[in-house]
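Researcher: Next entry in the queue.
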Amino acid sequence: DDSAILRIPDGVCLTINVASVERKPMETYLLQKGSIGVSLKISTEENPQLMPIWTFDKDNSKSYTVSDLGVRVCGPRKIRLLAFMEMGFRSGASVDVFVFGSVGLDRDKF
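Model: Structure for this entry, 110 residues:
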């Protein structure tokens, strides 16, 4: 699959605050028959099941951006992020999901 695998070293924390999609590519994607939206999913070594942390839904989302995710993962850890196109059983054009956050020292260890 097209997931991103991030390795977070011991003593470091990754914080993901914001996720977004670009309006124009998303509108083009939503014109495809059966397209519903896109979900940003995450999994860890301890929990390999991909779980949605944000979903852009064409019927329910008011914004192309979410700014209050507050996902914080401290190492040592390996996580996987995946942008999942919600289209039922079909596949088609995709859109990019952008994530923004920061990396810092784990305050509990220092």
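Model: Residues 23-30 form the longest helix (8 residues).
Researcher: Noted, moving on.
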